[in-house]
Design a protein that fits this description.
The protein has 156 residues and is mostly helical. The protein contains five helices and no strands. It is elongated, with a radius of gyration of 17 Å.
Length: 156
Amino acid sequence: MIFITVGAIAGAGVVTGLLFAFSNFVMRALAMLPSKEGMFAMQQINEKIINPVFLAFFLGTPLLCLMIGVYGAMHLRAIGSAFLLAGSLLNLIGPFGITMLCNVPLNNRLAQADAAEAEAVWPEYQIRWQRWNHARTYIGLISIVFLALGLANSGF
């Protein structure tokens, strides 16, 4: 279980770090561009991010968290298990769940927009997308803290 937990912490760090970069500066930089250019840049980012390296972290981390969550639930009385369960659930809800339920549908709608719609589509997209991105980033950070506390207190 130690290697699974370390892998989940590393994967959550990579994914949450990416989300943090978007919250901290990427979206602000794109917002400074004219709407057509900002929208086009985000469309390209959304297309290029779907690659094997990203998908390995984005899909692999929740899989590891699912295993940790099952372990934590089955060993709830063990020291550190509550932290492991909480951290894994937060990762499944935040970086993975919010992405799939909120950000991906927004990205799909943006992908269908053309340059003529940029003035109407891009500002609204930014507001809604960033709101969800901030949420999944902070939940991801809390998830990492709980996973680390679970590992530190687990006695593996």
